[in-house]
Amino acid sequence: MAEQTPVEIVRQAVERWEGVTTHDHRFGGIEFRRGRRELGHLHRAFADLPFTRAIRDELVHAGRARPHHILPESGWVTVPMRTASEVRNVIELFRENYERYRSLDNRPAGTQTGR
To answer: Is residue 111 part of a domain?
Structure first.
């Protein structure tokens, strides 16, 4: 049996979470959503995930992500996933987005703000 690719490992982890759906991403790859919110998407060797700019800055400063490869001034980050530790980091970052969106979805009506 062949070893799983990073994309397969991340996909199997993220798809298990309640309310997560998988879609083809418009620029290629696999996109994960919780409701209408995109948690992020996978390409062959990296993941792109949306965060607020403040969270993006923290992740970049901590070395967990790089500014997005196309939109470096946005809150998006690009995260490599070539090694086992990088794959674990990607799954953790997807989980952070999942929990952040879940908490936003559980706020009383009229108090939800942004991503």
So the answer is: no
